[in-house]
Amino acid sequence: MKPSLQFRLSQHLALTPQLQQSIRLLQLSTLELHQEIEQMLEQNPFLEPEEELPALDVAAGLEYERQRNDSNASDNEAAHKDGPESSEPDAAVGLDTAELGTTERDDWENGTEREDFDGIREMPSNTSGNNDGDDFDPLERNSIAISLQEHLRQQLRGTRLNAADMAAVEMLIESLNDDGYLADSLEDIAASLLDEDADEDDRDEVMSRLRCGLSWLQNLDPIGVGAANLSECLVLQLRVLPACEVQATAITICKSHLDLLARRDTKKLMSATGADEVLLKAAQTLIVSLEPKPGRPFTRAEANIIVPDVIVQKSGRNWKVILNQDVMPKLRINDLYAQALRQSRSPRGTTASEGHVAMSSRLQEARWFVKNIQQRFDTILRVSQAIVDRQKNFFTHGEIAMKPLVLREIADELGLHESTISRVTTAKYMSTPFGTFELKYFFGSSLNTEAGGNASSTAVRALIKQLVIAEDPKKPLSDSQLSSMLEEQGIQVARRTVAKYREALKIAPANLRKAL
Questions:
Q1: Three-class SS of residue 48?
Q2: Domain boundaries, the chain
Q3: Class in CATH terms, 446-513
């Protein structure tokens, strides 16, 4: 075959490193983004955080500096009146203090020399002795709260246990999970403490110590800690209550018939416990009042707090979206290093050194990173505003007024690809008057109505929730009944769809919602 040359025109998309970085940053959550920024700050010397004090703190610091300088000036005037001998040294001290205050004020306003001067720390309102004021952060108080393990150890220090029993209780405390349950059985804990060649007497001794330690642990506050399962946890809490018929019935149910209670099987419960319907209802009320997770009060609540990326605010008759400044990283290029790199540039006609080329690449990488970060938040803002414009009724009437919305509609409106909208709406959150929601929450499929229109699946779920809340606890609504009630309101929903939406709302079936 004779070789030949051919020209062919074609188009293809080339993903440059800058575009790849932009796509990667767009799909990151806020936490992952800050981790990426921390890593970039460590690797790239041309990138630095732009630290700025809040405007109120700056103003307060300047006011404090002014008052201090006025006070120094008053002291100098008083020194002049005392006599010529003492006036000169004091005047010199006053001059130095005034000059120092001016320099510090300039550095503070310019955001420099932050390590040498921190006006906030020197302000009387922010000293450690003023934590009872309004400016004390409640999250800070929660962050220093003791853990469940430390709470138990504090009680253990007040006991008079010997060293062996104390060590056994300490080992059990370390084996507790976040809910206050023993994560491992006593046999497994004993096996971890003994060697493989340990004899039977040593095993019996360790098990005896652990059982004794468990008895001590289960008598500490909170009651129920150290249980192996839910049944034992509830029984431990019931035993400390005053003895009565209701308490005895509740203990019997928690020991052997929790499954019947969960199924609301009144007839079998009455047969198993010998109690009448009134006594069973009182026992159920007592069991429901117990704490199934004794360690829950000691968990850190701020770990579950979601920080929104955007905030929706009322603007006249419309709704406006703004970026949350608390999650926006403030980065800048280090001017000193960038200027030094420009000054070290090789003369024209000569080849740049490998070191200079590498540093220039680092500088360009830092500029790309800052630009891509800004582009990420601009895209989030545009998409969020488009969502708010489409779902105006939600911000006025709540989720029951949600409209059907798909990614393609927002993509066509903004001239973006659906994959880009998907990346933007994943793990990004919006603060609204009804709470904080993921951006994906505002998208939902449509269901047909008798009027020929469409209803959002989110609105249908909200309607199902309202129907369940208003139902008679003694005669809860089945999925078929819910489907019929929705059809009466003009919304055509199959029973299977109702069941799917109910499970998504974490609503139990009708037989488990029935009250005793």
A1: strand
A2: 60-105, 148-217, 230-297, 310-442, 446-513
A3: mainly alpha
